[in-house]
Write a structure and sequence with these properties.
The chain is α/β, with parallel strands linked by helices and 1094 residues long. Helix content is 54%, strand content 13%. It contains 39 helices and 30 strands.
Length: 1094
């Protein structure tokens, strides 16, 4: 079948070739426009930008006039509620039409715009300076930037400036492949461009074109170094044409400077900060606190890393929670440690027994013990080494297949002697009966770790012949017992995972007494990210560092849902084709593979397969020695800190100079990667380290053969391996790539084809011998595809859960934004009044309780509904609700007028006597139960005779009540998400149950929001003795931001009022190592190996 597709591809071309061919006419138009610009003056070149802006403005002039007229009509208080609603719906529709018209216009002017930027690049690369007539923008820029000088009435733009602390001289002109990349990005697609092909330069084309609209363009990067560097590096190209450029990572969150950065035509920043600013804006209490404007167009650099790798975890803003520092991790740590050590000892003994039995030819008994040891501790290094021996892995698979048949009904025989059972593929761990007995041996209550059967126990209580009061007490006691044991078992399970599944210097590192997660894709430390559901706290307990307190979620969004809010989204990367299906299914983004400017000269060799890691690493070191003797630089890609440090030790013993780049040294990333192309340089780095920084080679190095890539093992994802290969062969440079694989590697152990193991056994390979064949590469690729499919399933499932949350988030944030801006608040209030009247009526109507209806009307709406009991049961439901609504709304309007009349004399006195002292004032309002401080503008209140106070009250009440109830709702949704997972045991779909129950929760929450807001507005007033005070506004400063690992967890404080000084990165220092037979430093008098070194 593959052969047929290859033949068809030769005749008709593949998708990539067809996609690129469609752009030939546009490319031709760009070249024609470019040729016309060569003779125009620098001033005329800048004038072309102004002309393009006029064309865009003219194309949407009619629609903007319509919106202006409709807004003026909506502000007329005489308009009915229904008419106002129609007006705002029409405005929303016109905004959509404007976006469509803008896109059509941009497509028409694209050739001219791209030609302008290419011509600007040519002039800057060929001349030392460009001289133009100075305008206000130039003068302001000259004060801030050293590449612009003002001389008389002229502005001089130099072709050299500072970017990321280094002076750069502009020497780039767009190739055709970069023009094609720019077209792809403008069309809202993903451009896959190989490393070194100039993605950053290609992005300048659609950035310039879309910035002409004035709606804002966001360039999103994976780290702040790239964001700041690219803003400084590419900025002058845009600033020459009068477009403003800024980087949000240069400014503090919630600051005026950051708001201005978003108002710039072009804004650079990191994915996390864009997302967190969205959340912060939806917690703002003033319109002036908002920093983002409407999200229009974003280009995501390294789009695979941002929209796939980072998309699996939500962004969270949180704050303190009651009893957040209460936990039981330290209490049960020693018990779990004892349990883990008992399992370790037992697994070691049965592994030794298995080796003996298999050696004696008793393969059935030996295979049984081998499977038991694998189920007990799959990461045991002795077990992994034994599995690489001839026939052992095949025997394990044969035994496992036997006990897994018939839905694993015989597997209990394997597990019964273990203390706990690990399923490494799904990262789960389960305590056995034997493990429970060990945990409770010193506890009198043998049910200490056993959950009660809640349903059965409740039924038993109901059957007991006791009073209702006693039943109620017993049920409450059962609920408390269930809750305590549930938390206790959860704590133990997380501690077990921490000890058995998570290794230091592999999944995480400990720096400055803090546990920090290492990104499996990039090897970078994930600052602020924590494992979810208490797992991070369990690891902190294991490592004897401070256990951070839990926090409460205030706002959350996934990057997937954040980036889907943009009118248009595009991305660029060197590795997206393998994930093209996911990009299309989730984001509707098509991946276009851009051809290289020069043919790739890199030699990609077949993988070398060894039986053991020892043989593999020996071969790697020998190859490094050989390559450095030839003068070739070597980049060694690893998948963990542990492997990078192991190779570093071996190279140090062999006196080979090298540099290491891993999670412990990530601060030096750009410096280390920049030097990786020097003659005979050896750099050990994680597979995706240094993304965004090219490894440039000298002429001599190219003659030696270019950069050599050595992969120490295959990653779970083909995309990561392609990224590592792509570090070599930049712009047609020579180079090579070679992956070294062993049967002990994680990927091969869990997903590798057993045919490789059998093949190596049949061939009777001796130690150190190697297999190299394209069929083996295909087998490894198939294993990677299995992992990718599994990971895609996980991400898609997470998105489906967040989609439920996102629908609710959009409703609440929309209400909040209307309140904050005030534009549509009166319409929202009238709808809330109607919904509340309907809810009160229906609540009593369904059960025909007229008295309850009257009571609730008085309690919530503060009115007598004037509906008789006979009318309640006989008149049409909709007519009665309309009567209640009209009376309530009239009452509210009258009340608003009375408040204005009551407050105005005081406002008048303050304004006439102290207006120079106050700008905004705080007026207290109370409903007799709670008091809210309402902020209003003093001058506006005086000029409108207090009539604006009612809107200020509405704003303050809506924001305060929505925020309080929304936070509570988020906690309930978190609890629901955890609880529905147990539905799988009852053969029910947890996602379906989550959708159903979350909808019910949301309905209840909306009803509660409406009732509390309307009740307060209808019943509140000025206190008898009230003092108008000056508004002293402070921003939230005790909130925390985080990227938890696949869930909600504890976070770090990043929002202090004062900007903390940036500490200079220090080299990592390793303390003196304690020998196993040395006295233990704890002072116990025992040897280290018998005490703390166990």
């Amino acid at each position: 079948m593959a052969g047929i597709f290859n033949i068809i591809g030769k005749f008709f071309g593949n998708k990539s070739q067809r996609d690129v061919k469609k752009m030939d006419p546009i490319l031709k138009s760009i070249h024609e426009e470019f040729s016309l610009l060569s003779n125009v003056t620098d001033d005329d070149l800048r004038t072309e930008t102004k002309n393009l802006k006029k064309i865009i403005a003219e194309s949407i002039k009619e629609e903007n006039e319509k919106i202006k007229g409709l807004k003026s009509e909506a502000e007329n208080n005489n308009k009915s509620i229904s008419r106002k609603e129609d007006i705002y719906n029409e405005i929303d529709q016109i905004h959509k039409e404007i976006i469509e018209k803008i896109e059509h216009t941009l497509s028409n002017i694209l050739p001219k715009a791209f030609a302008i930027i290419k011509e600007t690049s040519r002039r800057l690369s060929e001349k030392k300076e460009l001289i133009v007539s100075a305008n206000e923008f130039d003068k302001k820029l000259a004060v801030e930037k050293d590449f612009v000088l003002i001389k008389d009435d002229k502005a001089i733009y130099k072709n050299r400036w500072t970017a990321a602390g280094n002076e750069v001289v502009w020497d780039m002109i767009h190739y055709d492949v970069q023009l094609i990349g720019g077209i792809v990005l403008h069309e809202g697609k993903i451009a896959e461009m190989h490393t070194g092909e100039g993605k950053t330069l290609a992005a300048t084309l659609p950035i310039y074109l879309n910035a002409l609209t004035g709606l804002g363009v966001h360039l999103v990067t994976v780290n702040d170094y790239l964001a700041k560097r690219d803003a400084e590096w590419m900025g002058p190209l845009f600033q020459f044409h009068g477009l403003s450029v800024d980087c949000i990572d240069n400014h503090q969150p919630n600051s005026e400077e950051r708001r201005l950065a978003y108002m710039a035509d072009i804004t650079y920043g990191t994915n996390n900060e864009f997302g967190f600013d969205y959340l912060r804006d939806n917690m703002a209490r003033r319109a002036n606190d908002l920093v983002q404007r409407k999200l229009h167009y974003a280009i995501v650099d390294e789009v695979d890393s941002v929209l796939i790798d980072d998309a699996r975890t939500p962004l969270i803003i949180s704050g303190p929670t009651p009893r957040g520092d209460k936990h039981e991790y330290n209490e049960f740590k020693n018990k779990v440690s004892e349990l883990y050590n008992a399992q370790k000892k037992y697994v070691s003994s049965i592994l030794a027994e298995s080796k003996r039995l298999i050696k004696e030819g008793k393969t059935e008994e030996g295979g049984f013990n081998l499977l038991r040891s694998f189920r007990g501790l799959p990461k045991n290094k002795a077990l992994i080494k034994f599995l690489s021996e001839e026939g052992v892995k095949a025997q394990l698979q044969k035994t496992e297949n036997f006990y897994m048949q018939d839905q694993s009904k015989e597997m209990h025989k394997v597990d019964e002697e273990l203390f706990f059972v690990i399923d490494e593929k799904v990262n789960s761990i389960e305590l056995t009966e034997k493990g429970l007995n060990l945990m409770t041996k010193s506890i009198e209550d043998k049910d200490f770790f056993i959950m009660p059967d809640f349903g059965e126990e409740m039924a038993n209580i109901e059957r007991e012949n006791i009073s209702e009061k006693e039943k109620s007490l017993k049920k409450e006691s059962l609920r408390i017992d269930f809750s305590i044991k549930s938390e206790r078992i959860h704590t133990v399970n997380q501690l077990l995972k921490a000890y058995a599944l998570f290794e230091k210097d592999v999944e995480y590192v400990v720096i400055d007494n803090k546990v920090k997660i290492v990104d499996e894709q990039t090897g970078r430390i994930m600052e602020g990210r924590r494992y979810s559901s208490g797992l991070h706290q369990a690891i902190e307990a294991k490592e004897n560092v401070k256990i951070e307190a839990a926090t409460q979620t205030y706002a959350t969004v996934t990057l997937q849902n954040y980036f889907r809010m943009y009118d248009k989204l595009s991305g660029m990367t060197g590795t997206a084709e393998t994930e093209a299906g996911e990009f299309w299914e989730i984001y509707k983004l098509d991946v276009i593979v851009i051809p290289t400017n020069r043919p790739i000269a890199r030699d990609d060799r077949n993988d070398l397969i060894y039986k053991t890691n020892r043989e593999k690493y020996t071969a790697i070191i020998d190859e490094i020695v050989s390559l450095t003797k030839e003068g070739r630089p070597v980049l060694v890609g690893t998948t963990s800190v542990e492997i990078s440090e192991l190779l570093s030790k071996i190279l140090t013993r062999r006196s080979i100079k090298h540099q290491v780049l891993n999670a412990k040294l990530h601060q030096k990333e750009s410096d280390i990667v920049a030097k990786a192309g020097q003659e005979s340089a050896v750099t050990i780095a994680t597979n995706m380290a240094g993304r965004g920084t090219d490894i440039k080679l000298s002429k001599e190095v190219k003659e030696f053969g270019g950069l050599a890539i050595i992969g120490t093992e295959r990653h779970d994802s083909r995309r990561v391996d392609r990224q590592l290969r792509g570090r070599s062969g930049r712009q047609g440079d020579p180079g090579s790539s070679q992956f070294y694989v062993s049967l002990e590697d994680n990927l091969m152990r869990m997903f590798g084809s057993d045919r490789i193991a059998k093949l190596m056994d049949r061939m009777g390979l001796e130690e150190g011998e190697v297999i190299q064949h394209s069929l083996v590469n295909k087998s490894i690729s198939n294993a990677q595809k299995k992992v990718e499919e599994n990971n895609f399933g996980i991400r898609k499932r997470l998105l489906e859960y967040d989609d439920v949350m996102n629908q609710q988030r959009e409703v609440m944030y929309k209400k909040r934004r209307h309140a904050l801006l005030g534009e549509r608040l009166s319409l929202d209030i009238s709808n809330m009044i109607y919904d509340t009247c309907e809810s009160i009526f229906d609540q009593s109507y369904d059960i025909e309780d007229y008295e309850e209806f009257k009571l609730n009307s008085l309690r919530i709406l503060a009115i007598d509904p004037s509906i008789t009991e006979s009318e309640f049961t006989t008149v049409e439901r909709s007519d009665l609700i309309e009567r209640i609504f009209e009376k309530t709304y009239e009452n509210y309007i009258e009340k608003s007028k009375n408040i204005a009349d009551q407050a105005f004399p005081v406002i008048k006195q303050v304004y006439e006597n102290e207006s120079a002292k106050y700008e905004n004032i705080v007026i207290p309002f109370t409903d007799g139960i709670k008091t809210l401080q309402v902020v209003t503008n003093l001058k506006e209140a005086y000029e409108k005779e207090g009539k604006n106070i009612s809107q200020s009250i509405e704003k303050s009440v809506v924001l305060a009540i929505i925020d309080d109830i929304w936070k509570e709702h988020l906690r309930e949704m978190d609890d629901l998400k955890q609880s529905v997972q147990n539905q799988a045991y009852a053969q029910k779909d947890p996602l379906l149950m989550y959708k159903l129950k979350s909808f019910d929760l949301f309905k209840v929450m909306l009803d509660k929001v409406n009732k509390e807001i309307i009740s307060f507005l209808l019943k509140s007033g000025l206190p008898q003795q009230s003092n108008i005070q000056e508004d002293k506004h402070t921003r939230n400063s005790n909130l925390q931001t985080s990227r938890p690992e696949m869930g909600i967890s504890q976070q770090r404080d990043v929002n202090s009022n004062q900007q903390k000084p940036i500490e200079k990165a220090q080299p990592v220092r390793v303390g003196e190592k304690i020998g196993r037979n040395d006295p233990c430093p704890c002072g116990s008098g025992k040897k280290y190996k018998k005490c703390c070194g166990k």
